[in-house]
Fold these 4 entries.
Entry 1:
Amino acid sequence: MKYSLCIGAYSGQDEIYHLEKIKEHGFNGLEYYAWWDLNDMKKTAKEQERIGVGISATCTKFISLVDESLRDAYLEGIRQTIEACQILNIRSVISQTGNVLEGVSRDVQKQTMVETLKRCAPLFEEAGIVLEIEPLNGLVDHQGHFLQRSDDSVDVIDQVGSPNVKLVFDVYHQQITEGNVIRNATGYIDRINHYHIADNPGRKQPGTGELNYVNILKAIKATGFSGFVGLECGYTVDTDTAIEQFKNEILSQVE
């Protein structure tokens, strides 16, 4: 498995600083969400080549997937994001789904999402990039978010039916929403493109809360998964110290 950090892990530092640190720690990628905030994408691409580590995932310009009136705008954002990914050699694009629309049935909103994703799929297939939808918890962090459960998300992915539309499984969010983490994180492995990890409660680095990340990561590894596991978390101590603790106390037992 490959491990990534998220932009913001080193507060106030740019993507180049993060990439240097990722290389230093022996990790494999950076999740840089707002690609449109990069000052010079071609310069960043050259720096990635120099450092030997690059941006592994970004986000689409967010617009609700459940609102049919915003479909054209969503698709335009997808086209722009794919162009950025081609410059930066990014292979994964994360998309949230938007909040539930009042006065519209859940089934209608779900089918709107499926139809929009079906229109996105050929664009990603041609580009060789995976679009990942992300369920988020509605109890603590994202009240009203449409997709919250992994089974509901997998149903959407199955209806779309494209190898380039998958799921990012965020262990923190799914622990809050549904629990049953290892069963879901491994049972849906063929629909999952990458994982996010953080502990609960608090969304800090693994090892600070209730989740047994040694067992979780061992179970994911046992499936043969070789993609990215991203530390999407805050830190209770200095970032470098926290990462060393994660490697020494958790990864050493997984690998």
Note: The chain has nine helices and eight strands.
Entry 2:
Amino acid sequence: MTIVHIRVINPNTTASMTAAIHHAAQQQASAGTTVSASQPDAGPVSIESHFDEVVSAVGVAEEVLKGEREGGIDAYVVACFGDPGLLAARELTRAPVIGIAEAAFHLATLVSTRFSIVTTLGRTGIIAEHLLQQYGFSHHCRRIRAAEIPVLDLELHPEAAFTRIVEECCRARDEDGIGAIVLGCGGMANLTREISREVGLPVVEGVSAALKLAESLVSLGLYTSKHGDLAYPRPKAFTGKFSELSDLALPLR
């Protein structure tokens, strides 16, 4: 049996959420797949704005570099629905790097011609809209809906958060003319089956989707291309707190 090691990176710094995402990924992993999880040493405790994403993207890149120094990691999953730092992470490794939003969009279109996104806060909807445009899925998405709950409420007030999410998913089912729902937050990773039972539609959650796509790419022998814009970054000088990145020797493996 081929042993595959997938590293799931939670771009925020809340350890309990990292543990929950790790558990959700492990539940979906195939026999022979080892799933490990990590988070940045510094950064936002949750990601709910463009600014949060910019800061967390640095942490994602640092976690990929750590993984490359460790060695033996076959693929990475960036477990935040904004896919922060995704292309930068792909520059740093030949291993596949999968963002959970991009993965969820792909899988949703395989089970339905139209889907809606149900996310946490309305202000993050524009981030999802930008990703839909960037990835070419805008015409598949009917609507981006928000349960208007802070990300950390998924852990601090789980019952109330679950109720709000289900209510919004039911509105999407009844009003949007869709066949599937995409959950717009990595912190919802452990709610998929329960929400699907309540709503009666396929519910696609990005952590599981990304994990399965990562397994598929590894099994097919596909890797991040180093021809073109995803080639390893050119060595150069960095200053200040990033000086340790100066003349970084890539590849590391």
Note: Strands lie at 4-9, 33-38, 75-78, 97-99, 115-119, 141-146, 180-183, 203-205.
Entry 3:
Amino acid sequence: MGVTGPRIRVVIADDEPLIRAGIRMILTSDAAIDVVAEATNGREAVELARSHAVDVVLLDIQMPEMDGLSALAELRRTVPAARVIILTTFGERENVLRALEHGGAGFLLKDTAPAELIRAVRAAAAGDAYLSPAATRHVVDQLATGRAAARADEARRRVGVLSERERNVLALLGEGLSNADAGKRLHMSEATVKTYVSRILAKLDCENRVQAALLARDAGL
């Protein structure tokens, strides 16, 4: 692969020599990439990035003295021009999101194919973010989980205005019971249940019992 512009200056940070050697071998197979230094911990990575004016830093998450995520935060503060890619054997979703929240330019698992590693470094150097397909799935799953959690929190807050009896009626709406069936379950007349339902809809600002039933589900009733 020919060089069409300035070489991409890279620091590799990993406490395992064999991992660093493998990454170096992969990256230096691309004529556009120059591995200028290697670090054995996050603190060294920050110091080397400062002194070598690097374009991209590859950071392992699990390192002594200063882990990858802490080093990422320090790099964003002190060497903002350096683009940081988190490289790890761990696929936990929270690490992906934390890396992105701290300004990471990418997240790759260590079993990433060599060609993908090179693409990620090139993309980061060009100012783009790069997530491996596996990391992207983690992010999507986590965001979906986060939205569900946010809905549950909001539903529980809204349901908190109800009395215990009203919550019991709402729970049965969530199960899809009619007023008559709910009355039998709660030993109440159908008319009484209907009154409770009207009161619940007003308190929860729901237009109909379907909305109330969904709210009951989100609240975990």
Note: The mean pLDDT is 84.
Entry 4:
Amino acid sequence: MTSAHQPGHQSEVTLRVNGKPHTLRVDHRRVLLDLLREELDLTGSKKGCDHGQCGACTVLVDGRRMNSCLLLAVTLDGSDITTVEGLGGDGEDPHPLQRAFLDRDAFQCGYCTPGQLCSAIGMLAEAAAGHPSHVTDPAAPSGRPVPLDRTEIRERMSGNLCRCGAYPRIVEAIEDVIP
């Protein structure tokens, strides 16, 4: 019988997490969410469904939003990871979207909030880069920033569930930070 902790089942990876490099020996089966929570003590990202269906574990990987419960950590060697803990940078001030969530009371229990925040930041970048969604007008010029109205925001955030039903406030908070 082979132990799961033998060197053949692990690789060394270097991740830049919230601006800080971390070199870790990682089991090939370990997902990013567990590595963040258990090895780096970054517990903001939550384990909701563990199947990539709820979005509670959403983080930014090289600027793109991804479900960390589905990503094998070993495949992310050299990647830049941003969790909710890193959104405000090194400063004491929260990210403008975090401030908007607080101002709009865009959370209830708060469990989904870290994933909502990371997803919203990724979504704003996607729209700014001109990536269309399912509801984007097909006649819209390709590659140009997509205007974000409530319908676009709801569609783009549809992968993040809130069991408390704070959706109207979440949409309002996102609208508050649209340039």
Note: The first strand starts at residue 10 and ends at 17.
